[in-house]
Amino acid sequence: MSRRHYNLPPLTTLSAFEAAARHLSFKNAADELSVTPGAVSHQIKALEGYLETALFQRKHRSVDLTDDGKALYEALSTSFGRISNVLSTIRDRSYGGKVTVGSTTAVAALWLSPAVIRFWRDMPDVNVDQISQDRPFKDRPDVDFFIRYGRDSDPNLSHTPLYRDHLIPVGSPEMAEKLSGAGLEELAHQRLIHLSSEDRIWTTWPEWFQQLGYTGSIPVESRVNSYSVALQRAREGAGLALGWQRLIHPMLQSGKLVAIGPHHLTAPNQFYLVGRPDEDLSDSARALKDWIIQEVRGSSV
């Protein structure tokens, strides 16, 4: 048998293992790799034979990683991530400068998209792709960095603080006039528009009231899974939304939404730019990152 330079097993076995370990599912790994679950199982058995150790604890309906499996997955996840970043950087150079930035749909509509337009005016040769989704940015090697409220759990990602927002009740001008000077108890009995999010880090209405000292009940009469929809309902007088003051500044400035004071809460977490370390970013990605940071810090909002 020929001796491999890095003394590695076939890369197909490592790829199958990494996908299965990330999903903790042979079936989901097979779907991702466009092969059958049996093929994934075969590759992992071959890898376990090569290593002479079990990498998975196989249960009736699920699998868990063994200690050896966890160690291998951590090494592969980090290595594959860095390889993906380098390949993306090389592709960026061939396309003359490209960067991909992610955010929630609300952040994209209210802040990021207008900022990208202003960036283009300064650097028209840089191509910017935007990805908007209202779920955590996981397993997205195509994204250079994304805007996130609070820190991400992945220790390999770089975090650059942007700003800390303030949380205020907002509604239509008519609703704001009706509730001028209202106390917490009166606000709690209004129709509150609750946001359901896969990312549990966002502050909710019950948490907002609790932090301000109100311990009464908070009825849930209206629930949405999109912050943009919550703001639209509030604009139309269908209830009160929990407003992120700096994020929705354009809507407050235009009068489409009105803050209902005097109660406000400093957000528990900051907004961050989260993504690859600077040394792994292309020149274009670093340019956009630096531009966003300077624009945020230069704003008086």
UniProtKB/TrEMBL annotation:
Q: Which Pfam families match?
A: HTH_1, LysR_substrate
Where the record annotates domain HTH lysR-type, the positions are 9-66
Q: Which UniProt keywords apply?
A: DNA-binding, Transcription, Transcription regulation
Entry keyword annotation includes Cytoplasm: no
Keyword Kinase among UniProt keywords:
no
What family name appears in the similarity comment?
Belongs to the LysR transcriptional regulatory family.
Q: What is this protein called?
A: LysR family transcriptional regulator
Please give the organism.
Ruegeria haliotis
